[in-house]
Each structure stands twice: as C-alpha cells, then as structure tokens.
Design goal:
alpha/beta, four-stranded parallel sheet, two-stranded parallel sheet, 8 helices, NAD binding
C-alpha cells in the first residue's frame, strides 16, 4: 500500500498484517508499522515507483492487493492557489495513484486475481471551499477506478474506491473543539469516524467475499455525503 507511515494508511497496514497478509507500505520516509515492510518511495517519481515494486516483489512476491492511499493537501482559496499548489496535489493524489495501479495491474491479470482500492474522500464529491485541488484529485479516483473496472474485470481484478469522511486521527486531534462540534452537527450519525471504520471497509473490498463488487465507491462518512 502507499502512504502507510501514519494515519489511516498506517491503520490499514496494521489491520492487514494482523490478518496474516504479507504487507509492504511505501512512504517518503520509508517508515512502517512493526511487521510491515517499509519501502521509501515518492510516488510522483516513476523510477522510485518501479524500484519500490521491484523491492516488494523480491520480498513478498507479486502484489495481489493494492491500496492507493498516499495523498497530500495544499489548501487555499482558488484566487490564491498557485499552479504549484494545484499540480503537486494532482501529481501525488491522482497521477501517483494511476502510476502504482498501472504497475500493479499486469501481474494481477497474469494471476487472474487482484484487488485495487483507492482511498478517496467525501470531499471528492461533496466539495469543500479552499480545496479545489484536493477535491478534484479525489473525485478523479472514481473515474480512474471505474474505467479500470471495465478494462480488467473479466480478468478477476476489481477496482473500487473507499471515501472516508471526518475520521479521528492525529490531524483532527489538533482541531479546535468548536470546529469539531460543527462537523459533528453535519454528520447524521453524530460523531467523527474511527480509523477502524475505514480499515474494515478496505479489508472487506480486498476479500474473496467482495469479488463481485467493482467500480463502486463506498462512503465511510457517517452519512455526511449522502446523495453525492
């Protein structure tokens, strides 16, 4: 998986490792949870992506489940957003996800089994002021997944999207309490999500039981994005 050093990505890596999978997690730092192969990789660099896959395949064999989670934000209102603010977010969140999926697909087709899961966001379809770059990159993952699903579904490979809402992580822990309470009022279930809510959805989509689900976006947002 990509972006496995912290937050939701780290939790996904830990859950898969606990379930007995051989797990490798890429990040720019190369850090990973105990029991997970940490691989240093900047997914905006094609050479580093190829090197990471080569290292992972040497250690664990062909990748059967890909979780594309790596992402960044560079939030600001559109009138202040620079071309670099836009491009760097698109390059990491969307193009980086395309790049790792493309590299993973051929071995999956050869094995006639594969699970590709993109981690999007409720923001991708709901929208968010100050996040036109992030929202566009996350919305793009759905088109990517659905097109992949049509290309490779007959080969036993699925492609799906998980779209978390507001999840309790280190990032949300530093938010002002009034802001958090405001978020909760918008969420029908009345609470922020737990990382386990997201990891459970990812684990299911990666399982044999989800073999007939492809091209889907699974919202894990407490109902925040209903209808979008």
């Amino acid at each position: 998986m990509t972006g496995g050093s912290r937050g939701i990505g780290r939790a996904i890596a830990e859950r898969f490792a606990a379930a007995g999978h051989k797990v490798a997690a890429t990040s720019r730092s190369g850090e990973a949870p105990t029991g997970v192969l940490g691989v240093e990789c900047d997914i905006t660099d094609p050479g580093q992506v190829e090197a990471a896959f080569t290292q992972i395949e040497a250690a664990h064999g062909p990748v059967e489940i890909l979780v594309a989670n790596a992402g960044i934000t560079k939030d600001t209102l559109v009138l202040r957003m620079s071309d670099e603010d836009w491009q760097s977010v698109i390059d990491t969140n969307l193009t980086g996800s395309f790049r790792v999926a493309k590299r993973a697909v051929r071995p999956m087709i050869r094995q006639r089994f594969g699970r590709i899961i993109f981690i999007s966001s409720v923001v991708g379809l709901l929208g968010s002021p100050g996040q036109v770059n992030y929202a566009a990159s996350k919305a793009g993952l759905l088109g990517l997944a659905r097109s992949l699903a049509r290309e490779i579904g007959s080969r036993g490979v699925t492609a799906n999207v998980v779209a978390p809402g507001y999840i309790e992580t280190d990032m949300t822990a530093v938010l002002d309490d009034d802001l958090v309470q405001g978020y909760k009022k918008q969420i029908p279930v009345g609470r922020l999500g737990d990382v386990s809510d997201v990891t459970a959805a990812v684990e299911f989509l990666a399982s044999d039981q989800a073999g007939y689900i492809t091209g889907a976006q699974i919202p894990v947002d407490g109902g925040l994005g209903m209808g979008h």
